[in-house]
Records
---
Amino acid sequence: MAAPLLVFGKTGQVAHELTSLAPDAVFLPRSAVDLSDPEACEAAIRQHTPRAVINAAAYTAVDKAEEEDALAHVINGEAPVAMARAAAALGCPLVHISTDYVFDGQGETPWSPIDPVNPQNAYGRSKLAGEKGIAASGATYAILRTSWVFSGHGNNFLKTMLRLSETRDALSIVDDQIGGPTPARAIAQACLAIAEQLCEDSGKSGIYHFSGAPDVSWKDFASEIFSIAGRTVDVTGIPTADYPTPATRPMNSRMDCSTTEAVFGVPRPDWRDATQTIVGQLRQKGEIS
Ligand code: NDP
C-alpha cells in the first residue's frame, strides 16, 4: 500500500476542506496529537511514515495570542519545526501554512516571499519562528503564506457578516486594511498540489504566497458578501484606529503570489466565486435564509 498523506488538524477551516479533497489521508485532530507537545508531532510522523505531511493546525486566535504568547510560540513556532525534523529524517516533504502577519504592513506594494519580515503581533512572531525553524531543518518544505481565510465551516469574517446581517441594517467596517480574502478550499487544493510536486522535486522547496484576488479592504469584502447574499446593509468605512484590537494588524496585506503560479501552476483564486458558492451551500443547508 502507498504511504499515506499525513495531515495535522481535522476540524479547522483548511483541514476540513482537506477531509473531502483527500479522504484517504490520515488526519490528526487535537485529540490525536496536541501541537503543544512538539515531541508528539515528531513521534506521529515517525509512526505513520507518510509520503508527505501537511500542517493545517495552528494557534489562530490572533488577539488572544497577545496574552498567551508562550503557548502560541510552542504551537506555531516549535511544533512545526519538530514536524520538519521528523520529515527531514524520513525524507518526506512538509507543507506548512503561514501568514501575511509576518510582515509589518507598510506601503502599498504586494509583499514578495523574499521581502523582509517584521511581525507586529505575538501571533505573527510565533508563525515566523515556525517558518525560520522549518527553513533551517534540512527538510524538503513549502511554507505557504496566506491571508484572510474564509469558508462555510468554522468562524470567519464571511460567516460573521452573514450572521450580523440577520439583525443589523447598518455596519461600520475597517476600510484601510487591504488584503486578499482566501477560500480555505483553494488553500487545501494548493497544499495538495504542492505536496505532490515536492515529492517529485525537492528543488521546489521554499516560501510561497497564496491569497485570493482581487485585493480589497474589509469593507469592500463585506459589501460584496452582502451583495452576493442579497442582504441590504448600509456599510460605512472606518479607519483601523476606530476599531481597536489587542493585536496590531498590518494595513497592507497584499501578497505577490506570482512564484506560486510559476513554480507550482497554482493561480490566485477569485474570492468572489468562492463567496458565491459558499453562500449557496449555506442556504441549501438551511444555515442562512
Ligand atoms: P482554524 O482556526 O480554522 O483551525 C485551526 C486548527 O488548529 C483547528 O483544527 C484546531 O483544533 C487546531 N489546533 C489549534 N491548537 C491546536 C493544538 N494545540 N493541537 C492540535 N491542534 C490544534 O485555522 P485555519 O484553517 O483558518 O488556518 C489554517 C492555517 O492558515 C493556519 O496555519 C493559520 O495560521 C493560517 N492562516 C490563517 C488565517 C485566517 O484568517 N484564519 C490567515 C492567515 C494564515 P481545534 O478544532 O481542536 O481547536
---
Amino acid sequence: MSETMPILYVPAPVLRAKARAVGPADADRVRALAPRMLATMYEAPGIGLAAPQVGESLRLIVLDVSGKDETPDPMVLVNPEVIAASKELATREEGCLSLPNQYAEVTRPAVVKVRYQTLDGSRKDIEADGLMAACLQHEIDHLDGTLFVDYLSPLKRNMILRKLAKELKAR
Ligand code: K1U
Ligand code: ZN
C-alpha cells in the first residue's frame, strides 16, 4: 500500500482554487500521486478524493464506489470533465473528507457523461448514474473550488461551516 497523505480541511485556500490541467510534463508526478491518493481515500474512508484535498492543485481525481462486500474498483481520472448532464435531477446525502462529519442533501443531475484521460494518456468517456454520478460531480467540483455546501441555502451552509469550525477547534 502506498503512503497516505494528510487531507486538508476547510478553510484551506487550495480547496477554493481552480486546479490546473494535467499536462505531459506532469506524468511522473501524477503516476506517483494517484496511488497515494487512493491509499488516502481508502484509509479515510471515502468513496472519492480530488487532488486539491491533499494540497495538489491539479485536475486529478480518484474514486471507488464499490460496496464493502464487492470487489474493489479503484478509478483514476485525469483532467475529467462533465460533457453531458441529464435534465432529471437526483437528491442524495453527501459528505466530504474536507468537511469531516458534516452531511447534507444535495441535488444534482441524475446522469452524467464524463470525459477523462487515464494514467496512460488514453481518452475515455464514462456514463454514470446513482452514487457514481454524484461522486464524479462532487470530485470534479473540487477541481473548480466548489464544495457541496455551495449547493445549500446560505443558512444551511453557514450552519455547517460554523459547526465544522467549532469541531475542528476542539480537536
Ligand atoms: O471528495 C470527498 O470529500 C469524498 C466524499 C465523496 C462523496 C461522498 C458522498 C457523495 C458524493 C461524494 C466521501 O467519500 S465522504 C465519505 C463517504 O461518503 C463514505 C465513507 C465510507 C463509506 C461510504 C461512504
Ligand atoms: Zn469532497
